[in-house]
Amino acid sequence: MSFITQLFRHWTYQVFAPGSLLRAKYNAFKDLLRSDDICLSLIADLEELAYGQDKADQARVVWLCERLSAAVERLVGNLMTMSPTRYMGLPEHFKKIDFYLRMALDRPGGDIAPPYLLSLTEAAGRQELAGGKAANLGRVAVETDLAVPPGYVVNANAFHYFIEAAGLRRPLDRRLRQIVLSRPEDVPRLAGELMEVILGAEVPQGLAAQIQAAADELSRGGRLLAVRSSALAEDSELSFAGQYASELHVRPDDAVESYKRVLAGKYCSRALVYRISHGLSDTETAMSVLILPMIEPKAAGVLYTLDPEGCPLSGEPEAMSLFAVSGLGESLVDGSRTPRRLLLSRRGRPKILEACSGPGPVPLSEASLADLREAGLKLETLFGRPQDVEWAVDAEDRLFILQSRQFHMDAPRHEARSVPRAEVLASGLIRASGGVAAGTVRHLRTVGELTSFPPGAVAVTSTLPPILAQFAGRLAAVVAETGSRASHLASVARENGIPVLVGPGGFQSLPEGAEVTVDADAGAVYAGRVEELLPPPSVEGERVADPRFARILPLTAKLSLTDPEAPEFSPEGCKSLHDMVRFCHEKGVAEMFSLVGKGGRGLASSRKLRTELPLVLYLLDLEDGLFDSGRSRSEVLPEDIKSQPMWAFWWGLADRSVGWGDLVHVDWEELDRVSAGIFSKNSRLLASYAIISADYLHCMIRFGYHFSVLDSVCGHEANGNYIQFRFKGGGGSLEQRLLRLEFLTGVLTRLGFECSTRGDMLDAKYARKPENDTQKRLAALGYLTAVTRLMDMGLKDREQVEGLVDQHLRRIERGRA
Amino acid sequence: MADIIVVDDISDAGVLVKRILERGGHKVTAFTEEEDALTFVRKNKPDLAILDMKLKKMTGVEVLEEIRKLSPDTKAIMLTGYPTLETAREALRLGASEYCVKPIDKGELEAKVAEVLAG
Predict the structure, then answer these.
(1) Is the bond preceding residue A171 a cis peptide, omega within 30 degrees?
(2) Mean pLDDT of A97-126
(3) Any residues with CB less than 8 A from the CB of A680 and at least 6 apart, and which?
(4) Residues A509-518 as b or e (16 or more Cβ within 10 Å = b)
(5) Sign of the dihedral defined by the CA atoms of residues A664, A667, A672, A674, in that order
């Protein structure tokens, strides 16, 4: 719907059909809460990838960003529906951030310009086009006198051209984006489908003809072919050793199909996992394919020009390691045959230092051994570092180099994590943000206490309020009784490398002031500082984001709008999609909160609640808030209430222990002002109102000289639940009114609300908790609303307030009658 | 501080950019006419040109191409109210260093100008 139409509808409804406007606002708000939840989950997913807690293909990153953008657009639309004029700049700023994000995600597709075939000589040194294997072999052919078989490279542009011409990018991406390394069980199925996509496609005719021509040329004289992978990142900094497929003994008429099978090998499970775990994209690892004639060797094998194990028997510190088998070398590389292993001297006269493993005679002449040693040294000089060389010697004792790549020392072994001996204070908690940190336990009961927190505290909280994010710099870790990884706070924590655990029992198991170590990765909290778990000081507290996310994160997950009171808390202040989510949620709740003006406008179709209690309360049912029995009557009975939050609130309000007296509770201030008693006490202008649906309650209660507004969602989805309660005014002196607020704050804080007061106004929030807990708080609010209605008049001092807090808490804890 | 030109067919937008950047100590000249801007570039070879994508007779991308001929060292930041990936790619291909989407945000503009001048 266009903006103008929406605005027009807004005004029209405001004037003519207030009930419909409320309904539209309410529906938009419900949708806003759903979108908010989706957005936060997507942000959490993105951050897990950005901070290396999980790994996935680049296609997933793009897909997550696109979904996030769409969800935020919907969220913005919801807020605009709720209030078409108040947040004018919002859609515009969304478009701006969305565009920057699309720019950041925009990667050049692969180059598809011909030529598609290169001779080995042309491929020399052109790693970006021919892949590491072919580029290196080309250099050997061009820059040394070592023999290399003639060959052709079907280059990376050919790969891109094939993918493009056959329309494979989308089907590939659709599967690639589903691969997440933390779910390895899905990989084989997806790998199978990906390979099927390649194998089922047609190589473009022109390209197929060129491959065929090259195959015919190389197979002259009846030779068979070797078709080998030479992927773009292969044999560079990363070896990809053994990740891709090669085919031997290929008949020339099978060359094009063989080319396709080698391409498909790019998507086998192990190659996918290797590539993704090293953070490379599908396009970055385009597959070139090397076609060589087969050499029928007398012997073949591998040569490490510098074996790090050295030569323990002869005492020589450095040696070359030669592995040889008779016949083809493939059986050696794939591990199916045990080779002879010889250690050759690197310096002085060529000699065998040691003949290690393997049975039978060495299948090489002394001259060939000397050739190999010589070749190894030349290749080392050519590439400037120790090499891992594949070689073959033919029947005429001629040595051929088949491949030369950097020799990779063993990667440092990851030590198995030992279980610390420290006392376990809590375990089985859920990780919302990973990492390990130690600090002193501080129980956080009200947000105000945060300012007095010492740096490096381990905050123990009942929930994960977004406001904690502002104090991220002071927190070592957070343990919350409820909350999830899909929360703003968890998001900020991940960015700052602050471990966050969620699970019940934190307040009991973690004593105030105790030194503890929070191991979010293990879901446990230990007593004391467990040094063996803690990261070395240099990396403590900072989490390095994957560099591929450098441009994406500031536009998506980074949250800078944390303080709703700050002047930057505006559409213009939104720098990321996360900021927009925070803004829309905050303002959406605020819009809902201001749904009923003090005049109660817009409630014309509401119905009065018939009750023996001396109060006047009108109900407006938006959707499924009343049982069928109550729908037809003009007056509604309390038992007609189906709305979960309304029923809970009413339960507390109607508590028999309250002692109501017979004063009808209306807005006396308004009554004094407008009529000096002329208005009927049943006047709608002065009554209390509740807007309800099955899981929603917006209630404005006017008792005497004070009013309170309650806004709540209470349903099965804990993440969508919240209570917002505002209490203002009173007939007593300011001091008495403040004492009453103190009483309310005391009780509500101990019930898990976050409270803040300004003047004689109290704001209390309780959010993202399970249905049952939320219901109990609503009933408590009902009870408190009833007992506090005239309390201020009788309050004298703080001591009295403290006594009342304990008294009423006991009453609430005992369970409502 | 740098010598910067701003070319925008709407003079208000140009003036806004000029104000923001002058506060940062830069020397800024704003133009609404492409020809005037190009004459200035030929003579003064400014450090940076901030170009709106939609101008009176030419597009910002065309002006960018001209500027590259007249003064290859002049850097460029494109401005647009209606961004598309295609024009953005084209501008970057032709040597624009950055891209700013309207409405202009002071902090964003300052940061991008500083970054482009430093690089």
Answers:
(1) no
(2) 91
(3) none
(4) bbeeebebbb
(5) negative
Cα dihedral A570, A571, A574, A578 in deg (nearest 10): 100
| Angle formed at CA A434 by CA A431 and CA A437, multiple of 5 degrees | 110
Could B103 and A93 be called an inter-chain contact, meaning their C-beta atoms sit closer than 8 Å? yes
A102/B85 CB distance under 8 A: yes
Percent of chain A with pLDDT over 70: 79
Q: Does B104 touch chain A (CB under 8 A)?
A: no
Cβ contact B85–A93 (<8 Å): no
B93 and chain A in contact, CB less than 8 A: no
Instruction: Evaluate whether ipTM surpasses 0.85.
Output: yes
Please state the pTM of the whole predicted model: 0.69
Minimum-distance CB partner of B88 among A92, A96, A103: A103
Judged by a CB distance cut-off of 8 A, whether residue B101 touches chain A is yes
Mean pLDDT estimate for chain B: 92
Q: Which residues pair with A311 in a beta bridge?
A: none
Contact yes or no for A106 and B89 at CB 8 A: yes
Task: State how far the Cα of A580 lies from the Cα of A68, in Å rounded to an integer.
Answer: 11
Q: Tokens in use for A802? A: 């403290």
Tell me the per-residue pLDDT of A406-455, one tens digit each, with 9 for 90 and over: 876 543 333 445 567 788 999 888 887 888 899 999 888 776 676 677 77
Residue listed under structure tokens 């209606």: B82
Q: Can you spell out the DSSP letters for A36-58?
A: HHHHHHHHHHHHHHHTTSS-B-H
Q: Does B105 touch chain A (CB under 8 A)?
A: yes
Q: Give the highest mean pLDDT range of A33-37, A211-215, A278-282.
A: A211-215
b/e burial code for range A263-302 (CB count within 10 A of at least 16 → b): bbbbbbbebbbbbbeeebbbbebbbbbbbbbbbebbbbbb
